[in-house]
Amino acid sequence: MNFLSPNFFIRNIHIGTVEGASCVNLGNNAPSGFESHKKHNQGFGNVYGDGNSLKGLRSILSDSAILDMMVNSKDQEVPEWIQTMIKNEMEKEIHASP
Predict the structure, then answer these.
(1) Nearest to 35 by CA among 17, 22, 18
(2) Who contacts 37 (Cβ-Cβ below 8 Å, separation ≥6)?
(3) Which residues 6+ apart lie within 8 Å of 30 measured at CB?
(4) What is the CA radius of gyration of the chain?
(5) Measured between alpha carbons, how far is 94 from 84 in angstroms, rounded to an integer?
(6) What one-character-per-residue DSSP string does 48-87 give?
(7) How confident is the model at residue 22 (pLDDT cuts 50, 70, 90)?
(8) Cβ(31)–Cβ(25) under 8 Å?
(9) For labelling, which of 2, 9, 10, 74 has a CA lying 20 to 30 Å from the CA of 41?
(10) Are 41 and 62 in contact (CB under 8 A)?
(11) pLDDT (tens digit, 9 = 90+) per residue, 58-67?
(12) Model confidence pLDDT, tens digit, residues 6-16
């Protein structure tokens, strides 16, 4: 068999999850430039096990999505209107604090 053979003999393979900047490669590969951006908002959390009961539960999540717009801006300058908006929101927070 050739060293760079494109033949694969796999009896069984199980892949649960491929996400983000992950990949499954077979053969001669040179993956590069992978990027992943993920946001996960969770106001309550996780409940594990059997027979769980949640009564009278209240939860709140406050998410400023404005910062999410800047995730991909590594190579780009943040637009002035976004800088102004962030500055205004931060000033509101400072003045609202006790």
Answers:
(1) 22
(2) 71, 72
(3) none
(4) 23
(5) 15
(6) -SSS----S--------GGGGGGTT-SSSPPPHHHHHHHH
(7) confident
(8) yes
(9) 74
(10) no
(11) 877 777 666 6
(12) 777 778 888 88
**Are 72 and 61 in contact, with CB atoms under 8 Å apart?**
no
**pLDDT, tens digit, 9 for 90 and up, residues 48-87:** 888 888 888 887 777 766 666 665 555 667 778 878 888 8
Longest Cα pair distance anywhere in the chain, in angstroms? Answer: 74
Given this model, what pLDDT does residue 71 score? 59
Q: How far apart are CA 71 and CA 38, in angstroms?
A: 10
Taking the C-alpha atoms of residue 11 and residue 13, their distance in angstroms, rounded to an integer, is 7
